[in-house]
Each structure stands twice: as C-alpha cells, then as structure tokens.
Amino acid sequence: MRVAVKIAAGICGMNSEIELRGSMEGDYQILLSSDCQLVQSLAPYLEEADPLMAAAGRFSKNPVFQGAEACGLHAACPVPTGIIKAYEAFCQLALPGDVTITMEKQD
C-alpha cells in the first residue's frame, strides 16, 4: 500500500509531502519532506509511531501531535493534521480524500 499527501501550509509558503509505504502488519516506511525545518524535525517521531495510534489516537496521546509540540510547530500548522489523514488512509480507517480550509477576512 502507498498513501501520499501534499500540504501547502498557507501564508508561510512552506510545502510538505508525506508518503507512507508498506503495510500495517509488517514493515512500513514514512517519508517526510518539507520546506520547513520544524516539520523536517518531526521525522524521527513519526518513524517510531504506532500507525494505528497515529491514525486514531486522541489529541493528547497522538504521537503526531506530541512530536509536533516537541518540535515547536505552532498550533495552527496544518501539517500534523495532514500527516494524521495520511495515517488514517494507510490504516484503512478512512478513504483518501482532500481536505480544504478556506479563509475569508471581513473588515
């Protein structure tokens, strides 16, 4: 199985790509590339993560969010959520589908 996610983070202009390959039952590999050094520093946390916990763990117990906090990502960064969506599809807990956040500013 292979799941790939591309994330354009927004106003910061940083782009990230996450790819999960293999199977939950055996070895799997996560590849993370990003323009952002803080996101890049997440890689070791993800390599050690239990895929099911990363896909479905509660906020306080989720290894993706725990790693994001340890690496200093800000709370509004969409990359951790994109990573979790990749894990969800990889674990076959959800079908792969795009996620959109649209902002409108009104004065």
SSE inventory with pairings:
Elements: E1 2-8, E2 15-22, E3 28-34, H1 37-40, H2 43-47, H3 51-56, H4 63-71, H5 79-90
Antiparallel strand pairs: 1-2, 2-3
Termini, distance in Å? 47 Å
Number of domains: 1
State the total count of DSSP E strands. Answer: 3
What is the CATH architecture descriptor?
Answer: Alpha-Beta Complex
Largest sheet: 3 strands, antiparallel
CATH class: Alpha Beta
Identify the overall geometry. Answer: globular
Radius of gyration based on Cα positions: 14 Å
Sheet-strand content, in percent, reads 15-25%
Strand order of the largest sheet: 1-2-3
Which topology does CATH recognise? Answer: Sufe protein. Chain: A
Number of helix segments? Answer: 5
What is the helical fraction, as a range of percent?
A: 25-40%
Low-confidence stretches: none
Mean pLDDT: 94
Structural class: alpha+beta
Taken in chain order, the helices and strands follow as EEEHHHHH
